[in-house]
Amino acid sequence: MKTIAIIGAGAAGLAAAVAAAEAARGAGALAEVRVTVYEASDRVGRSILATGNGRCNFSNAVIDAGRYRNASFVEEALGACEATFEGGASPGDDSLPPVDVRANAVLRFFAERGLVWREEGEGRLYPLANKATSVLDCLRAACTAAGVRELVESEVAAVEAPRGEGDRFTLRLVDRRLERADAVIVAVGGAVGERLLPAGVPFCATAPTLGPIATDPRWPRQLDNIRVRGALELWRGGRLVAREVGEVMFRKYGVSGIAAFNLSRLMEPGDQLAVDFVAAVPGEDAEAFLRARQTRLQGALRRSITWEDLMRGMVLAPVADVLLKACGLRGDAAVDEAGLTRLSPVLKGLRLPVTGLGDVRQCQVHRGGVKVTAVDARTCEVRGVPGLYVVGEALDVDAPCGGYNLHWAWASGLLAGKSATARLREGR
Length: 428
Fold this sequence. Notes:
Blueprint: E1 2-7, H1 11-26, E2 33-38, H2 46-49, E3 59-60, H3 71-84, H4 105-112, E4 117-119, E5 124-127, H5 132-146, E6 149-151, E7 156-160, E8 169-173, E9 178-181, E10 183-186, H6 190-196, E11 203-209, E12 213-215, E13 227-236, E14 239-251, E15 254-256, H7 258-264, E16 272-276, H8 286-301, H9 307-311, H10 317-326, H11 337-347, E17 350-357, E18 365-370, E19 375-376, E20 381-382, E21 388-390, H12 404-425
Parallel strand pairs: 1-2, 1-10, 2-6, 10-21
Antiparallel strand pairs: 3-5, 4-5, 7-8, 8-9, 11-18, 12-15, 12-17, 13-14, 13-16, 14-15, 16-17, 19-20
Helix pairs in contact: 1-5, 1-12, 3-12, 8-11
């Protein structure tokens, strides 16, 4: 019997397990190929349950390869996944969620296994039940139906490549057990993967990313735990690097929230963040916007207005205090032309010097892992090590928030799982 060993029972690992076992079953080779998942913790899918604050933003309605690190590699791999899993759920099947022209292999995979989802802002897809357990339950059921063997509390310490023709991979577990496999799919984070993969597989150093940003704390510490709906801009040497619209949450050390998380992938110490508190107002119109606001309020209140009056109802009081302080204005002083000129650019871009990442425990992914140049994008197989596959976060691929990272985990897992079974069936 041929065996496929999958190391890691997270998103990529479980997708790979289902794809490998179902491919064997579909070819009538289930008795000839056994798929085993090795998981270090006491249950499979634990990492899935933690995604999206327990709701699991499992994909996005529109997947753009250009949003990923190493975009060309991702584009080729996603294309290979589509070609490998073409067909499937029909857009006209009323029993399934809407699967329109934007549908892809990942969405078809989940639709066919019973998952129903809904779309939120910016294309984010969540299970209709609003719980990550819905996603995991579908995967677990598919694993059981396909005959996947799950070994929990089975941590793999090292993978040794075959030494000669006809030899197999050796898996060394931390409890000193030895397991053999004809193909191995590594579906763990890059930091773990580097320790267990055979020597010679090229790596990029891993580092946490997609998390909060630490800045000069002067203003953030006065706004700790306050959320605003606005925008963040990342500036470097007078050049705008990127702009993200969304929730901004202030912390004592800097800023958090989706906008900050996405910019953390691009930031460097020494950059500047600019917080835009009125994102809907174009920068060139900000001063005119404030003047018009002054005129309306003077008419409504029938008196001259103060800076506190001007800010009331537009931003929260603590935010108003910080913005006025940053401009050298007193809240109880009367609004004047010079002050409007000073306030408008600060309202549109309170500057915060970047010092680095904030609380790394909040980071959603790790950048780095196996270099994509060492991997065949058509299969996720490591070049020069036939039968060894690397998927998900084990590869040097990451993307912004919005379901893109989980989508990559599913897609790369599906591609590697089916590719591994095809290799064994063909006797390679």
